């Protein structure tokens, strides 16, 4: 991070922690001794999900913290693109059921790694707002762990990165995890 960007960030909020995670080396360091109590791991089913979950698990174990694993389903993703009435009840049920199975698997991985206090959550809505503001406010999250990007370069340009929005607007610390082999910048 450039010095000017860091100064701007410091002016907007108190910097309590410098957190780094290198997935290739499995390194997780915190510059101070602050302890997180409620860690939010935001997953989207992309290639980065495993890396994001691993970083969240390591943070939860290090801090003996509660772990919330969250995924957001957008209603427009449930339709076939031709319907104007929105998804049918069957489409919604099928999508939620499949998502629930994937989330149960992530919860089991966290528990197998030693995290004892873990919950999964499926929310509908705008991922930017839910991850950055709504969920952390409802669950008192003090750290958000999120992947570097779930979008292509064109999508990021057109609609903006969820990660970028979360890192700029969240009221708690944000740990951005880049998966091994991710070369997007």
UniProtKB/TrEMBL annotation:
UniProt name for this protein: Universal stress family protein
Lineage top rank: taxon = Bacteria
Question: InterPro entries given for it?
Answer: Rossmann-like_a/b/a_fold, Universal_stress_UspA, UspA
SUPFAM superfamilies named among the record's database cross-references: Adenine nucleotide alpha hydrolases-like (SSF52402)
The gene it comes from is: uspA2
Q: Which Pfam families match?
A: Usp
Q: Which family does it belong to?
A: Belongs to the universal stress protein A family.
Instruction: Using the record's annotation, list all stretches that form the UspA domain.
Output: 36-178
Coiled-coil segments on the chain, per record:
none
